[in-house]
What does this fold into?
Amino acid sequence: MSRVVRVAAAQMGPIARAEGRAEVVDRLIAQLHKAHSFGADLVIYPEMALTTFFPRWVFDDPNEADAFCEAAMPNPAIQPLFDEAARLQVGFSLGYAELTQEEGRKRRFNASILVDGTGAIVGKYRKVHIPGLAHADPDGCASNFEKRYFENGNLGFPVFRAFGGVLGMCICNDRRWPEAWRVMGLQGAELVMCGYNTGATRMVMEGNRRVMEPAHLATEHNLLVMRAAAYQNCCWVVGVAKAGAEEGSNFLGDTCIIAPTGDVVAKAVGLGDEVIVADCDLSAGDYNRRSIFNFEAHRQLQHYGLITAQRGVKVPV
Ligand code: CDT
It folds into this structure.
């Protein structure tokens, strides 16, 4: 049986602070229509796709962040996207800032959901690796203050049976950490979606001097981590950017779809709203899964005194 899923990566250009949910949802629906016209089964949107990337700011009162968060998913503002996607029988993955009441207190998470072709939410992920600072940076280098607003995700790295395969999600900074991918790989992930808001340049301290990191590295590292993850875990990787000049930040584009071989099979060319598509055969990683990356045969962590987890099975040593 063919397990080819036609996947659309829906890169977004900048979202201004003044842009309301209705305007953004209109943009998302326009991308959904384009993806549908390409015959896509699944559309993947970036991290925090409903608002501007607010953690670039240090609000005196962190509760100001609530205005950028969704207290329910879907909610009346987002429902038109769910309705149109279900009408077209196209699934989607959407990143958003989540506001929730759990354990008797208000909590915020940087989240993403997976929605099937009927409009049902079949998976949810909360970003584990929250980057940046919780307070203003005395050096003036930092451009990410997510730690001020978000808790670390508490759902682990789950995978979901959907679209005829095993799918997982991670969010932006998570992609730089191999264990995020490997935990999903161990559960048999065949396609992993990763939305991001990543600066095109980065300031760092060199001694007591503020310097710009070499400009090519943002693109280089973005591709490096996702291509390696795809290859080492025998899965498709779909990296989807919020790109371009947004409220003083210059975000990287480079939205891409990467095969389990590590090859980039589709890539965005601009820094605006752009839809790219690839046919992702979910069985394409099987030959490596049975040979060079046969975890059960070759991943012998018992020699380090660690627990060897096989695909979906925990094996005590
Ligand atoms: N959004 C996000 O996670 N951005 C991070 C910035 C890291 S630098 C503090 C990223 O990994 O791209």
Observations:
- The chain has seven helices and 18 strands.
- The chain has a mean pLDDT of 95.
- The longest helix spans residues 21-37.
